[in-house]
Amino acid sequence: MGNETKKDIMFNRMKEKKKEVKIVRRIVLAIVLLVLIGGGITAYSGYKYVKSALLPVDENSEETIAINVEIGSNLNTIATLLEKNGVIHDAKIFKYYAKFNNESEFQAGDYLLTKSMTLDELIESLKTGKVYREPLFAMTIPEGRTLEEISERVEDKTSYSQKEFMDLVTNSEFIDQMIAEYPSILTDEIKGPDLRHSLEGYLFPATYSFYEEKPPLELIVEQMLSVTENKMAAYTEILEEQEKSVHWLLTFASLLEEEATAKSDREMIASVFQNRLVKPMPLQTDPTVLYALGEHKDRVLYDDLKIDHPYNTYVIPGLPPGPISNPGTESIEAVLNAPKSDNFFFLADKEGINHFSKNYDEHLAKIEKYLR
Hints:
Elements: H1 2-53, E1 64-69, H2 75-84, H3 91-100, E2 109-114, H4 119-128, E3 137-140, H5 147-157, H6 162-169, H7 172-181, E4 207-210, H8 217-232, H9 236-242, H10 246-259, H11 266-278, H12 286-293, H13 329-336, E5 345-348, E6 354-357, H14 360-370
Antiparallel strand pairs: 1-2, 3-4, 5-6
């Protein structure tokens, strides 16, 4: 019985071992199958993702997106920029596609791209420095124009009237929507009670291209805001260091835009204004009086200077509540690059050349010398 029992035990152990081997084999087989299936699914999913990433983001989109490619930007930087702005699906795919096609020499500059552009169209545009698609029409907004003046340009170039444009850019719901969409530049500062127009100063002067006969009016305005957002991004760090806002910068810059002539030194004028703000001392700049009056005049009269208005810097201290025009890059950078000086006064002579003075007596002498 003892020997038989040992045989039985050994036999049973062998059976159990064989059973374990079979189970292990089944588990291994199952794992291999799962890996193969999973790999196949992963490969297929990867194929589908890459294929979709090679297609336009939205082939039906007519929206133009402002992109600034800075000097020295490499392929990685440009690909990241395009993905961040929603022009391409995936920066890595764009980068590999460009490398595969031996494309790497892209030009710095300002581009108006669309989500409907193919990767080849984007690459061609970035290589030539031109928008690959031909626009149906373009509209140029010069520096220093007010919203009312921009409305005239819109009416001239599109089927929209001045009233339709002004109704949109002064609509409170639209303004709230824009604040939500462009929080880096638009804040509650543009909703101050003394502001004439909330979006004054925020529609960047540039040439805008359009790819449909009648683009939505909202799209026209948003394209201008998008360029402003793109431009302001370059000044984020310095504004944070100075604890200043975009609204402050555009308001200040708009004064320079209106004061400056072709030969004016914007930076030195900015220095005068900064000295007056620190003193404190009224800025006393005539363009704010004209904006307060709401009309253009060749000459500001003494009585005009007395107008009781929040934009009249002869009456109110500091900067006006908001921009008095839409300033360009030169005026914006002049604010940030203003030199230190002891000047508190300036005047432009009959030929547009500026003369700066440290005190009022000097200023009066120069008035007598250059303007009498």
